[in-house]
Amino acid sequence: MLNIALPKGRLGEKVYDMFEAAGYECPSIREKNRKLIFENTEKQVRYFWVKPSDVAIYVERGAADIGVAGKDILLEYSPDVYELLDLDIGKCRMCVAAPKACDPDGINNLRVASKFVNIASDYYTSMGRDIDIIKLNGSVELAPILGLSDVIVDIVETGTTLKENDLEVKTTILPISARLIANRSSFRFHTREIDTLTEKMREQVEKNDQNP
Prior knowledge:
By secondary structure, the chain is α/β, with parallel strands linked by helices. Helices cover 33% and strands 32% of the residues. It has helices at 10-21, 55-60, 71-77, 117-126, 142-145, 160-164, 184-189, 191-210; strands at residues 2-7, 37-40, 45-50, 66-70, 81-86, 92-99, 110-114, 131-135, 151-156, 167-176, 178-183. The strands form 2 sheets. Strands 2-3-1-4-11-5 form a 6-stranded mixed beta sheet. The chain has a 5-stranded mixed beta sheet with strand order 8-7-9-6-10. Strand 7, helix 4 and strand 8 form a beta-alpha-beta unit. The longest helix has 20 residues, at 191-210. The chain is elongated, with a radius of gyration of 19 Å. The chain starts with a strand and ends with a helix. The relative contact order is 0.20.
């Protein structure tokens, strides 16, 4: 039986829709309850809901054979997993944002606030810039408003939160989307099953692209 870690929330529901359409349905997951684990012995799949940022940990450690995690999580934490497929959903972008009057290029020793300190550090290192990185766990938009930082590095989906706080995107670092990932040992021992599932999910991605 393949153990599949799904991210809780709207993204996880969209992902499960794709698994279901690909032939890996598990009817009990549609029931209104507080269960976290669901299985279909006929299809040989077991799903479980986990916090989105924890999916890669479950997969890396072998508690899940496969899972779905955002590219931001994969880049920030570099888990030792196989990235199998871009599911082309949960799309957003990693950006540098700041107050409108701020010119990040003109600031020496730029102060950068972010939840994604590794992504931010890698980005500015690639530019040869010295930065003062400030790790925050939430409401990073406050940092430049209160003078804690000059800029922030964060995920931007619609940009509404930035606009409401008089901030704007200065630079897009990279696009983000949900990725199908696999545990390395699981892939070695269940190559055929995982390859088959991946190809069926690829078909769903292509269908979604044709019918946005």
